[in-house]
């Protein structure tokens, strides 16, 4: 159930928040509601987080082997590039 809340904030902060909300294509009310929900949610662990839709969209489903040595791979690529 939605309820009305009146807040007293610095005018510059309000304008910045409105601009941010517009960039995120979300209402300022929903932005503040989400923030307060995250801030006060005691059930979640600190390491729990939601994966953004953008990150989900770039997921490939491929996994990296546990013994993959990225430093060695970078070295191989650079040595081939500069030979």
How many strand elements?
0
Query: Could you tell me the mean pLDDT?
Result: 84
| Helix-residue proportion | 40-55%
Strand content: under 5%
Structural class: mainly alpha
Counted by DSSP, the helix tally is 4
Which spans have pLDDT < 50 for at least 5 consecutive residues? none
What is the succession of H and E elements?
Answer: HHHH
Structural features, described:
This protein is mostly helical and 83 residues long. It has one domain. Helix content is 53%, strand content 0%. It is built from 4 helices and no strands. It has helices at residues 11-23, 28-40, 53-58, 70-81. The radius of gyration is 22 Å and the shape is elongated. The N and C termini lie far apart (67 Å). The model has no long low-confidence stretch (mean pLDDT 84).
Distinctive features:
83 residues, mainly alpha, single chain
Write a compact overview of the structure shown.
The chain is mainly alpha-helical. Helices cover 53% and strands 0% of the residues.
Question: Could you outline the blueprint of secondary structure elements for this entry?
Answer:
Layout: H1 11-23, H2 28-40, H3 53-58, H4 70-81
């Amino acid at each position: 159930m939605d309820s009305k809340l009146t807040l007293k904030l610095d005018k510059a902060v309000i304008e910045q928040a409105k601009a941010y909300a517009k960039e995120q294509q979300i209402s300022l009310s929903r932005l503040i509601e989400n923030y307060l929900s995250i801030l006060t949610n005691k059930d979640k662990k600190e390491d729990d987080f939601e994966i953004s839709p953008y990150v989900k969209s770039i997921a490939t489903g491929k996994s990296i082997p546990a013994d993959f040595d990225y430093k060695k791979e970078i070295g191989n690529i650079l040595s081939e590039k500069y030979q």
